[in-house]
Model the fold of this input.
Amino acid sequence: MDKLTVLITREQIAAKVAEMGKRITADFAGESVVLIGVLKGATIFLADLARQIKLDVSFDFIAVSSYGNAKQQSGEVKLMKDVDQSTEGKNIILVEDILDTGLTLTYIKKVLLAHQPKALKIAALLDKVSRRTESIQGDYVGFEIPDEFVVGYGLDFAERYRNLPDVCVLESGSGTR
Ligand code: IMP
Ligand code: MG
Done:
């Protein structure tokens, strides 16, 4: 049986996302931005964040292979779905659920920078700073969290729990590191 313990409540998330949206609105005043969500974990965060940005906003999505059904990162990132629209000359905000080792975003950043956007920023709801192996950091970070496996608000374990409104620590009976 999986045990779930709330780490960040929906109210805390809503307040933080509003703050992040305000900062982005101020930083890109008078300009338009493209939010590029990393499927599938970032979808709920992107939907909420987008509504807190008072600018001309459009969406795009990118998909990479990641953990599969395990909790450990394989160390390999593969592009499964590229953006639909060219990012050239645009203000891009890469929207991700969590920065862990940093491998995923380092890879995606490289892919996107090759197309010469005007600006490229990273918005991550969560940041497991202690797990970082790559030299990458978020420009807009919601919460720094300890090295625990979390689910909810878009984050999954084996595709489950994405719909939980709060971010919860998952302690499962088997397969936990
Ligand atoms: P990174 O490449 O190690 O930074 O890993 C980022 C990806 O790993 C995120 O997009 C998540 O899909 C996944 N991930 C890392 N930590 C967690 C977690 O605690 N819960 C769920 N997914 C996670
Ligand atoms: Mg993910």
Notes: The mean pLDDT is 93. The helical segments are 10-27, 43-50, 103-113.
